[in-house]
Design brief:
transmembrane helix, 304 residues, single chain, two-stranded antiparallel sheet, TSUP/Inactive_protease-like, mainly alpha, TM_pro_TauE-like
Length: 304
């Protein structure tokens, strides 16, 4: 069933969009990522203009995150105080990112630059995830104990303005969480992502948060930042397609509930390597499309 998207100005299959939203919702529930880093390039593939895909994806990310957070709140695996610190930095980053996005748009190359951003980030993150997941699987097969270094004293324990985050069992400065939030906010505004694929490892390896509260807290942070990003895109660029967002929202909310249940049953190492392979596949497809000559070539010639 074809539906017309007025802002994107294309017709797409309704069930295809619903399936994309549902798939990203499942990933959100399993890994604690908003899923925009996969949804946005997937929208590129079906013909949605990059600027519209970036702005509209933020709506779906927010809905999937709300659905996922509700599931984690029921299990008590959300550090609300840490999430608020991350959200504060994320809002600042989103404003900075919108300024950079509008600058790129004024230069007339925003679509190309967004795609290049995705190729670089997805390639780097996918490779790191793949290597880390392989190492975890190898250690599990050899039954070697994993060295836990998160609780060791590092630079986040030496900064001022310390606060106690009881759900995470931490007493650290609020400055590092705010800075992490700023970086995620900038990426959210430029690339239409929740930033979970950067936020989750940062929360574990930089902030030292226990894994059991990382996923839920990540989703909690994504809600406000993605919502603010979508609102700013709608007001300043008018690139949020309501029809597209609505279909993605429906699929994402449903998928996130299934994802939370799946994530509680499957092995973390296997899930991470599957996600890494998916990320690398999308990255290679984007890079391949950039390398191909366009289907229609245009030239400008003076008419005598």
């Amino acid at each position: 069933m074809q539906i017309y998207l007025p802002i994107a100005q294309i017709s797409v299959d309704f069930f295809l969009l619903l399936g994309l939203g549902g798939m990203v919702g499942v990933l959100s529930g399993i890994f604690g990522v908003g899923g925009g880093f996969l949804l946005t390039p997937l929208l590129f593939f079906i013909g949605v203009p990059p600027a519209v895909a970036v702005a509209t994806s933020a709506n779906q990310i927010m809905a999937s995150s709300v659905s996922g957070v509700l599931a984690h709140l029921r299990r008590g695996t959300v550090d609300v105080r840490m999430g608020l610190a991350l959200q504060g930095g994320g809002l600042v980053g989103a404003v900075l990112g919108m300024g950079l996005f509008n600058l790129l748009k004024s230069l007339g190359q925003v679509d190309l630059l967004i795609t290049l951003f995705y190729v670089v980030f997805l390639g780097a993150v996918g490779l790191l995830m793949f290597v880390e997941a392989l190492g975890a699987i190898r250690r599990a097969k050899q039954q070697k104990p994993v060295r836990i270094t998160r609780r060791q004293r590092n630079w986040v324990h030496t900064w001022p303005i310390k606060r106690r985050f009881r759900a995470s069992g931490l007493f650290i400065s609020v400055i590092p969480p705010v800075l992490v939030g700023v970086v995620v906010g900038i990426l959210s505004a430029i690339m239409g992502i929740g930033g979970g694929f950067i936020l989750v490892p940062a929360m574990i390896y930089i902030l030292g948060m226990p894994t059991k509260v990382v996923v839920g807290t990540s989703l909690f942070q994504v809600i406000l930042v993605s919502g603010a990003t979508a609102l700013m895109h709608a007001v300043t660029n008018h690139t949020v397609d309501v029809f597209l967002a609505t279909v993605l929202l429906i699929g994402g909310v449903i998928g996130a509930q299934f994802g939370a249940m799946i994530g509680a049953k499957l092995k973390a190492e296997q899930l991470r390597i599957l996600l890494a392979l998916l990320v690398l596949t999308v990255c290679l497809k984007l890079g391949f499309d950039l390398a191909l000559p366009p289907g229609e070539l245009f030239s400008i010639a003076a008419v005598q």
